[in-house]
Amino acid sequence: MVIEIDFNSDEAIYIQLTNQIILGIATSRLQEGDALPSVRQLAENIGINMHTVNKAYSLLRQEGFVSIDRRRGAVISIDVDKIKALQELKGNLMVALAKGCCKNITRDEVHQLIDEIFDEYNADR
């Protein structure tokens, strides 16, 4: 698993780490049942604090992307509650679309962007 952190980004490191793991799942680079590196190992590999990795793993667990196993550590474990996932996605999309509307982004532009992103993730499956 290759994680690239932009230390100059305004986005918090734990968020960057969380998002890259989610993208790894979406693009099938990470599969259900895969164990993530230990907190210490990943922190050393990236050159960040262990607490930052722990915060990312905790967020991933809360959002239903990983489970924490005493023996295996953080394991990819997708939350199968589709209704909950759809409600969460709807909330996130509402905010993203509101921002787009404020910037005069059209419905057609949004649809085109969603199709591009969806096709990109499904091309790897």
Walkthrough of the structure:
With 125 residues, the protein is mainly alpha-helical. The chain is built from five helices and two strands; from the N terminus they run αααββαα. Strands 1-2 form a two-stranded antiparallel ribbon. β1 and β2 form a beta hairpin. α1 packs across α3 (50-62) and α2 (39-46) crosses α3. It is globular and about 50 Å long. It starts with 12 loop residues before the first helix and ends with a helix. The model has no long low-confidence stretch (mean pLDDT 91).
* Average pLDDT level: 91
Helical amount = 55-70%
Largest sheet, strands/sense/barrel: 2 strands, antiparallel
What is the number of beta strands? Answer: 2
Number of helices: 5
Strand order of the largest sheet: 1-2
Strand content: 5-15%
SSE class: mainly alpha
Rg, alpha carbons: 16 Å
Topology, please?
Layout: H1 13-26, H2 39-46, H3 50-62, E1 66-69, E2 73-76, H4 82-102, H5 107-123
Antiparallel strand pairs: 1-2
Features of the shown structure:
125 residues; mainly alpha; 5 helices; 2 strands
Short description:
With 125 residues, the protein is mostly helical. The chain has five helices and two strands; from the N terminus they run αααββαα.
